[in-house]
Amino acid sequence: MRKKKGQMKIQQMAFMLIAVTLFFALVGMFFLTVVFSEIKQSAELLEERDALLLVSKLSNSPEFSCGDAFGTSKTNCIDGDKVMALKKNEARYLGFWGVNKIEIKKSYPSGSRVECNSNNYPDCDSFKIESSSTETDSGVGVSNFVALCRKENFEGKIENKCEMARVVVYYGE
Amino acid sequence: MIKNKKGQEEMVGFALIIILVAIAMLFFLGFYVRSDRTEGAESYEAESFIQTSLQYTTECGNFLGRFDVQRLLSECADNSLCGDGKDSCDVLNSTLKELVDSSWNVGPDRPIRGYDFVVNSGGRELIFLKGGNETGNFRGSSQVLPEGIEIFFRAYYIN
Fold first, then answer.
1. Least packed by Cβ within 10 Å: which of A107, A137, B99, B106?
2. Which of A16, A41, A162 sits opposite B55 (nearest CB)?
């Protein structure tokens, strides 16, 4: 009788321990979910910031940037005429920026989706600059908005013309 | 009788633990939800979109040349007309709408579900653009120009 009572006590305690452990495990899982979602969010933000910094570094480099050619100094502004000059000397810049490829795509106004060359510029929509000696489409692509500016003859006057574009930089692998 | 009382005491103890942990969870949840509204709303992409939009050359201008969006915002705040007689705010509204629509792929089956683009000047709303649907997951940016013009852009992402 005494033995049975002791067994009952042990059983009761075991059930209690299981219940408490399960409860705290559930609470722990809830906290972990919240903490991990925060980590994921900050990782996304960091990734976005890295992309912006890489694209900003490229678009503000002397080979691309508008400088003071379009009035006041502008950030995230690419000179289309400079890019055309760069395209002619593409081979000299292989491996210079440490990325695989740089693409500049006009997003507004966009129409023909034609790649720019010396014959169709400025009536075109995208520039492709191979920056790696191995011609590859692989690698991580990050992008950001830039203003694509050029000098334009408008009603007999030379004016600044800036359009909306995206710079896509492929790197890695 | 004693056995029954002991069992009741254990149950009360367990209930107390559950209540205490639940209160702690509620506090944590409340704090988390409140902090989430102010943080995580920043977007570098939205910030660079606003900056780039300000440089876009519009179709509105005067005898000196065409205005960029930043200048057109000032013209609109002053209720000025373009050189060709068009209302500067109308040109600004259509230009910004086309800029946002072509730069952000918004749709019910896309990662970005909607957007808000608001421009205020001296307490007056100059531009209010809205596309798609609002969700609880949003990121955006704002910019204040020297003339007291405030620009707010917010993109709503899939939940």
1. A137
2. A162
Round to whole Å and give the CA distance between A85 and A38: 45
Tens of pLDDT, residue by residue over A102-117, are 899 998 887 667 899 8
List chain A residues with CB under 8 Å of B65.
Answer: 154, 157, 159-160
**CB neighbour class for B69 (10 Å; exposed up to 12, middle 13-18, buried from 19):** buried
3-state class (DSSP) for residue B123:
coil
The C-alpha of A107 sits at a distance from chain B's nearest C-alpha, in angstroms, of 6
Q: Which of B152, B156, B154, B112 is nearest to B134 (CA)?
A: B156
Q: Answer yes or no: are the C-beta atoms of B140 and B155 closer than 8 Å.
A: yes
Task: Identify which of A101, A102, A123, A127 has the alpha carbon closest to the alpha carbon of residue A111.
Answer: A123
Mutation site for B-interface testing, chosen from A11, A108, A149 by largest number of B Cβ within 10 Å: A108
Give the minimum alpha-carbon distance from A148 to chain B in angstroms, rounded to a whole number: 9
Q: What residues pair up with A154 in beta bridges, in sequence order? A: A157
Long-range CB contact pairs, A15-22, < 8 A, 24+: A16/B10, A16/B14, A19/B14, A20/B14, A20/B17
- The one-letter amino acid code at A173 reads E
The DSSP letter of residue B87 is B
Looking at the partner chain, which of B44, B56, B68 has a beta carbon nearest the beta carbon of A49?
B44
Domain ranges (residues) in chain A: 48-171
pLDDT band at B156 (very low <50, low <70, confident <90, very high): very high
